[in-house]
Amino acid sequence: MEIVSYIFLFIGALFLLLGGLGVLRMPDTFNRIQAGTKATTLGTFSIIIGVAFGSSLDWLFKLVLIIVFIAISNPIGSSTIAKAVYKSKQIPDNLTQDDFSERGDQL
Predict the structure, then answer these.
(1) Alpha helices by DSSP H, 1-107
(2) How far is residue 21's CA from residue 56's CA, in Å, rounded to a whole number?
(3) Of 30, 49, 68, 99, which residue is the least packed, with the fewest Cβ within 10 Å?
(4) Rounded distance between C-alpha atoms, residue 6 and residue 50, angstroms
């Protein structure tokens, strides 16, 4: 079980590193949100699963609760940031499709 725990911890650390690099390297806010939420969510889940394999069953409920909280809060946070960027009219020039302006939605 300890080897499985180390494998998940390594995978999680790798995804967190790649997510951080994605936030630094991406050209605009929408791409940074994508890199920041997808990769770090998977990385955090992997680290928590690695901790679950390495710890006793007493921690299991707490770790599942943390995973549920992250699974709910990360998409809400990223969509809130994207909506704030859209409302501030700092839309990148390379945006190919703007779903909100076609329907006439005012955000």
Answers:
(1) 2-25, 29-54, 60-87, 99-103
(2) 33
(3) 99
(4) 6
